[in-house]
Design a protein that fits this description.
- There is one protein chain.
- Helix content is 66%, strand content 0%.
Length: 265
């Protein structure tokens, strides 16, 4: 089972051209959805106008290349923005598993290859997504782990992770059982995953590297020093604090919830 290309077996009942066309439509939906998201939210306009306003010390091509490499390695490949080790591991499992699963799917659909390597990678990637995704959903989410919320509470922000888990889960179950009912549900979940980009967090995977790069450039050219310094002595900043009890507290209050797991609900 783990060495067989499930899409090759499916080609006896569904034309390979139909399967390949479906993959191309999903790619087009991701591209169109991301562009719509950029235009609708004004992300690119904000990014470039914000970049143009900053006038720090000039950076050479070598500096920018070095920053780009550090951004790719630390912020993208290693998910360095996560300070919580469990959350980072879950995110890396899901991210790399998703990439592996999608690439293997494309190769197997377009080549219908019987090479067991791609089938193995497809299963490995899918299992990585399930481990990282379900771990996050049931044990790591803030409202579940820290606030005692129900793991079955669903919000619109959960559309990406839920459709991803549904797509991969149903895909693996279909490959195991060869049930056409599960295959139909797999197609529906996959369509929701790639067709809901404007309403889900899917496009964040394209925005976050750009934001991380801009942040590192701001630190390198000194423009981040133009930000206001956090201080309780400033009445305006003091009044912005959401908790009235802490408005007169010092800025450095120790480790706080980082001292131990926040499980006091």
């Amino acid at each position: 089972m783990f060495a067989i290309n499930p899409f090759a077996a499916l080609s006896t009942s569904i034309s390979p051209a139909v399967m390949q066309g479906f993959v191309l439509v999903m790619i087009a939906l991701v591209a169109a959805g991301t562009l719509f998201d950029i235009v609708h939210k004004g992300s690119a306009k904000y990014f470039f106008s914000n970049w143009a306003r900053k006038k720090g010390k000039p950076l050479g091509g070598g500096d920018l290349a070095s920053i780009a490499v550090r951004t790719a390695v630390v912020d993208v490949l290693a998910s360095g923005e996560f300070c919580n080790a469990r959350r980072r591991v879950a995110h890396l499992l899901t991210m790399y598993g998703f990439v592996l699963h999608v690439v293997a799917t494309i190769v197997m659909v377009f080549s219908l290859s019987s090479d067991s390597m791609w089938a193995h990678l497809w299963w490995i990637g899918g299992i990585m997504v399930l481990v990282g995704g379900y771990w996050f959903w049931f044990f790591i989410r803030v409202d579940v782990a820290a606030e005692g919320g129900s793991p079955f509470r669903v919000m619109r922000a959960d559309l990406f992770i839920l459709s991803l888990l549904a797509s991969v889960t149903l895909g693996l179950l279909w490959a195991w059982s060869q049930s056409m009912v599960l295959f139909g549900l797999y197609i529906i979940a996959t369509t929701v995953l790639f067709g809901s980009v404007p309403w889900s967090k899917f496009a964040h995977m394209f925005f976050k590297p750009a934001a991380a790069f801009e942040k590192r450039v701001s630190e390198a050219n000194g423009t981040n020093q133009n930000l206001p310094e956090l201080s309780r002595d400033d009445p305006e900043q003091q009044a912005r604090h959401s908790m009235e009890l802490l408005r007169d507290a010092p800025m450095d209050m120790g480790l706080g919830i980082k001292r131990e797991a926040p499980r006091h609900y």
